[in-house]
User: Fold these one by one.
Assistant:
Number 1:
Amino acid sequence: MSLVTLLPFIVLIGAMFLMTRSAKKKQQQAADMRNQMQPGSGVRTIGGMYATVKEVSEDTVLLDAGPGVDLLFAKNSIGAVLSDDEYNRIVHGIEHDLKSDSDTVPDDASALTDTDQPADAASSDDKPVDLGKQDAADEPSDAASAGAKKDDEPKKTDGDSDAK
């Protein structure tokens, strides 16, 4: 056999070796992360639940998911051990000040415009627009055409007719 015929097999075996090696490395990192858990650490389970570690045993972890809620999980079900800042940001909404307060963006765009008067004052000069439905008696029209239209058209009802 020549080297050219063996080359695809060598490449395939090399790729399989590299894939298994990287998978083993990821498994080892996950095991190290789970072994570093201590009571008080914030964690995220593989199901997406955030909790605080209460107790750690060899194969299980007791998690505090809220007041009076203690849950027993397998160690393998812990997806990530979070830093204190990250856990507080996600669970309690407490942001760690990494930037100064001057860099915050306002919730509305009114603070970003350069107009001197507020939006309500600018639109106060306009006449209010009535979008409600007007009755036929309120409509301005000449009397002759209005009388002819009222007599010619059948009277509309809302479905409450006396006919049986």
Number 2:
Amino acid sequence: MVGRMFRIETEVDKERSRFLRSRLREGNTAASPVLRSLRGTPGEREVPLQVWALEDDDRVAGGLVGHTWATWLHVAYLWVDERHRGSGLGARLLSRAEDLAHSSRGCRAARLETWDFQAPDFYRKQGYEVVCVVPDYPPGITEYTLTKRLP
């Protein structure tokens, strides 16, 4: 085999990123009957899902940012203002997102990541189960991935 020389670059390039994603997507779709069956359906695309709790003066009291894809809800961020923590607002936001994902988008499950100092116990109380633990990510912190089957 003849060795080849390549130029290695490290800059951020959106066009190359899109190219890489499309190639991976093609390969994944070819290899997976499940992913192949999603082609051309609404479940093929990541669709943003956001739920907000606003005070009378339009200040954000809490919010959830995520997306749905392939019959899954992925919660990226859930935050409640310190003044409203312990009031059930976080549970209401999460429940509303799960309901929307299930009823409007056909999602059957949800997933999220949280750190040990954030809210793993909160999510367990909401019916989530730990499926992955990554110690020391970032250093000194444990990351949890949790999932939940939606009704």
Number 3:
Amino acid sequence: MKRTKKAAPVEQPRHEAELSAYQRALRDRLLAAPVVAAPEPWRPVFERCVPVGGLLGIGFAAHPDSGHDLVMVVSHDGHGLFDAVTGEKIARDRDPAPEDSTPDSAADLSCPGLGPVSGNRVHIAGLFGGGLHMTTPDGWTLEVVTPAWPNDRVLLSRDGGLPHSGPYGEHWWHLFHSNYSELRATGFSPSGQTLAVATSSDLTLWTRRPASVTAAVL
């Protein structure tokens, strides 16, 4: 009888270590924190989030005249540019050139600007990678936590971040629960005056600048 080589035994997967009592308490604390409004001086830019089907990523720029933060949105339906103080959609390109339609075509994950920032390129964070500022110079911090995978939660804090020693609603806040769409990107603008959360289906913005005009109905 011909002998056959014996197959190596399949290695059994290692069991993940159970959470410690400290980790369970931290997870339970995050799960128990309800979504609340952002604290002053933050205010929502839109009355509700702006629907953007097939959103791929977002990036920040500055208006050359007003100095307002601008948010560029890249989606399957093209590119859009929002004023992050008034909420106005100030530019739209429904048919960008194929080589510029998504940021992964560029080594620095950027797309050409539009409207008042035409001629510049805007770095885009989202599905293809990249990132936004997660802190501001005056101490605000953003974190993404997932105590109940796969739903991400966005936390804003002023106590240095996890494990959040300060009381909830005074030193840290649960601003956004992505329990209906995939989180694409979250972060502050370089100026630290705008906070953005983008999912695969919508955009939500907060600003620290006062509203000079009523936000446009979109």
Number 4:
Amino acid sequence: MYRRPAVAAALLAAALTLTACGAGGEKAAAGAPAQAKPPAASAAPDPADAPPTAPSAAVPPEAKPTGPVLPDAKLVPRTGSFTEKEKTYLSGRVPEKMDPAAVLQTGQESCQRVERTAKRDKDAATAAVIAGEIPGAKDAITLLCPEQKPILAAAEKGFGDGPRTSPAPGAYRSLTVSTTCSWEARAKDGSVLASGPETRPAQPDKTKATVPPGTTEFTSTGCYAWIPA
């Protein structure tokens, strides 16, 4: 007889415990130790596969940081060592409180993106460099992947959409196929000297443009990028 109240109390306590567990399960799970996650893949996305990545505010894509930087003597990775060309790339480029390996990775990823795109289409790689879709491509190619210098050399002769003042007269071709590409060349007085295309090119043809002598402004839209034909 004396055990019944005790048993009832025990059953009530157990029921309350189960109810609390059901209502607060999410809180309990939230308080549990976090499970380790695998590291993210380090391979750089291809401009043809993913939207371009915005350049890091801490490390300008082509210019070196304006604030304090790590001296060359402290450009040491946490494990292993940097090669001479990697040290040259990092010199004067690593903000004082930043990991040199992270800055190097940015340059290496730029090289990977240029290389991968160039394997598919050299024009597309050149256009991506001209348009600034590959952050820091110029310095990365020059110092880390010089085998891609032909892409850089082609890009340095080209220009992107928008107004271009005093372009060199001659023939140009767009670097991508576009059904919306249009262009015009204007003289100093604003008169149109040439425009196009007269007919839309069929794939895989690309738009061509001729800049007449006396052109003071060449403007294009939807053409992406141009190089001399």
